[in-house]
Amino acid sequence: MRDTSTQATPRTPALIATTIGKRFGDTYVLRGIDLTVAPGEIVALLGPSGCGKTTLLRIAAGLLSASSGRMEIAGRTVADGAVHTLPPEARGIGMVFQDYALWPHLSVLDNVAFPLRMRGDKRAVRNERARAALARVGLDHLADRSPGTLSGGQQQRVALARAIVAEPPLVLFDEPLSNLDRELRESLALEMSTLLRELGLSAIYVTHDQAEAFTVADRVAIMIGGEIAQIAAPEAIFADPASVDVAQFLNIGALIDGEIAERQFRGSSAALSVETPLTNGYNGRAKLLIPRTAVRAAQDGTLRARVRRSQFQGDRYLLHLDLGAGAHSLVCPSDVPATQGTEVALALQAERLRVFTTTH
Fold first, then answer.
1. Predicted TM-score (pTM) of this structure
2. Which of 29, 165, 210, 218 registers the highest number of CB atoms within 10 A of its CB?
């Protein structure tokens, strides 16, 4: 068997996936995935159920083989088509599961030390390294406790300490906060983001929660239909979605059907006419994206909308608006409430509008 290992350096990518494909029978789950994770980078895989994000994570973990393509972790080939697949225990990665997977009959220290025990390290060595890992996540004072006596956030930190105790080149997160209520999930996502950067970890973070992905990751890969539809920093994706599918999945704003003629977009069902940012001379069917950040209530606004609901949010109101029959609703911030059923005028920030050409 040929030697598939290479010498990793501090600049070696934590992961390189090249045209990774996966199919079950005639069903393709992944279609030619290309992904690189830089040292110290956190990449979130975000998408709807069935998009392939968990399948890609399982291939990286060695829990599932690829049907085609090649994958390297820290310069070492771990998958090469369906021919060569390195088993999970030989990949040297860490993993954090959504249910933490802590053993209730073991102490916190023994839970963290378990990967070193499986590796054959002596007790004194693994206890020392486990305590050091717990100290890195701020839980060394709870080493002798049972996992069942800890809060959800503390259990998550124990799971992270166990994932990093062997100093892996890559840590995989499988929806680690999905079992928590929204308020706790939001606070732990921010805490997780801070901790991962303090530890300098390279990570792939799978989630279906947009806010969680945008909080934790340096880059977000939007997966739709077994492909990466777009990968970029969270701000870049929100400001410039690559497709209608990405804009719809992220619910960035209203998508209006219409037509472009001589750089002027006219809505089919909404009374809307704006100059488009397209400069390629295109004429024909199109969709106009009006992001929530591009609209504001203004008496001199040129766009008219009907108020469906006014929602108080403490420091402001959110107006839920109807832009016309067949048009998507739009949410607009406002300093004052508006009565349901009344019409309001809206001003648009032209530089934030996006146009997608369509064939139907």
1. 0.86
2. 165
